[in-house]
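Researcher: Structure prediction, please.
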Amino acid sequence: MLKHALLATGAVVLLAGCGTEEAPTPEAQAPVTQESELLAVCEDTEELAEVAEHACIHAEYGPFESVTAALYGGPSFVDVSVGHTAYNVTLPAISYRQWTLGYAGSVIFTPEESTEYAVLTSGYRAVRVFNAATNEEVGLECRYHVPQEVCGNLRTAVTADLEGGVDYRLDFAAVVPQPATFLLLIEETGHDHHEE
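Model: Predicted structure follows.
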């Protein structure tokens, strides 16, 4: 049992890094994934600002759905595929006896079409994307810090090319309880948001 707890703790620490709900200072970038040093900053910030503005409407006015992510490392049936929906995600605690070692969990997203998607969250936490059927990790393309003037409710986005009709497992992790509950929105980056 101790081996499993230590393994789970190690996985959370590797996946998470340290995060905070506060905006990063200019000299320090918030860790988004364990590969945050390798993940490039998004260059097309104008398009991502439009996506974040659209997502901000849903982050403020809904519709909302509360979900508890599946335990990290186990099968996930928690679906976050409904478009234009703000999900209040709670990560389950990874505990050993009376100690909480971290928070980690998974949700499933199935895109309707093949395109680039932005995974937007209300804070800075680790995120990794896997093909749910093959367990192959999907490379994240870039990260985007959502400016306060664009949306006060969202803090960060990562982008990835996803295939329509394929189930993807999104793994999230946090080391401290505060970012263990967060807002999640997934939006197409090439979608025309002006009509909605």
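Model: The chain is about 15% helix and 35% strand.
Researcher: Thanks, that helps.
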